[in-house]
Amino acid sequence: MATSLYDKIEAKGALDAERIVATARERAKATALSERAAADADVKARLRTAERKAADFVKAAKTDAVQQAKKATLERRKAVIDGVFVVAAKALDNLADDAYADLVLTLLKQDGLVGDETIFVAEKDRERFQNLFSSARDGNLDLLAKRLKQSKFRLRLAAEPAKIDGGFVVVGTHYDVDHAWTTILSDLRDGTEAELADILFSEGA
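-> structure tokens emitted (205 positions)
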């Protein structure tokens, strides 16, 4: 039986349709695979970003914890050193007369006195200073000059007390020297705090 032209056209159309459908399926499959790969890559990138942020957060948290620990340690050490100097201040306030006199002499020998200086003493120590260093209790510090082995000195005790909590201040014509206990301890702390910290907080101490 002869195949008509119409049948040939119909058969060719059916074959073309199958090819179109197959091509469409392949393209759809390729598109789906591409979109899936892109989605997977996006998910992986987001995971990497999240992991990096989490790692950064943990690192920052650890760093902050370390810094806080160091800060707390330094504050505790400072408190201990503060305590040492509080004890030292109390010791200066409670010196016996002999120890007080020896300290005054030691400090004055370092001052390079001319001999006509006036000494202002903290109010709570003023009477003791005069009793120790003035034979007539009249402000003339003759006993102080004698103990300094400077008989020509004419040192005077000021009529008014120094405005300090403890210690004394030497006032000369061209210079003043501050021997307030707070000043002495402050200078001592500045010069020895690092060494003191090493002694107090060294391993095995």
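The mean pLDDT is 83.
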